[in-house]
Amino acid sequence: MILEQSLLLETLKTFCPNLKYFHILDVKFSTQLLDFIGNLKKLQFLSLGWHVEMFEEEILNLAKILPFSLQYLDLYYIPLNSNFDIFLNAPLRKLLIGGHIYKEKYLKG
Fold it and tell me: How many domains does the structure of the chain reveal?
């Protein structure tokens, strides 16, 4: 578990503002986490494993701040009865929730 999440996020914000891939487990939902993710303008791959299940309001807040560059979103520990269809309207190629693929788009080559 991340014991000093705020320190980690502040460090990443300062030294790694151009992250394209961010995978973190045992994270606690916070406004600082939302601000961090929302400011990653080049982020393409995001994988989050929550310390505890998210609440409906937190899911909606996360969906609102996702960067336009995001192509892949993987979320763990979201209640399956949640209204996560808000993510289906995002310009993602792949959406995984709890290991299940809910949306998959392929670029025409």
Answer: 1
Q: Domain residues for 55? A: 18-104
Eight-class DSSP state of 89:
G
Say yes or no to pLDDT of 93 above 90: no
Q: Is residue 5 part of a domain?
A: no
pLDDT (0 to 100) of residue 14: 92
Beta strand ranges found along 1-109 (DSSP E): 21-27, 45-50, 72-76, 94-97, 100-104
Q: What is the pLDDT of residues 52-91, one digit of tens each?
A: 767 778 888 888 899 999 999 988 766 656 666 777 777 7
Q: Which residues of 1-33 are buried (b: 16+ CB within 10 A; e: fewer)?
A: eeeebeebbeeeeeeeeebeebebeebebeeeb
Q: Is 67 part of any domain?
A: yes
Does residue 98 lie within any of the structural domains?
yes
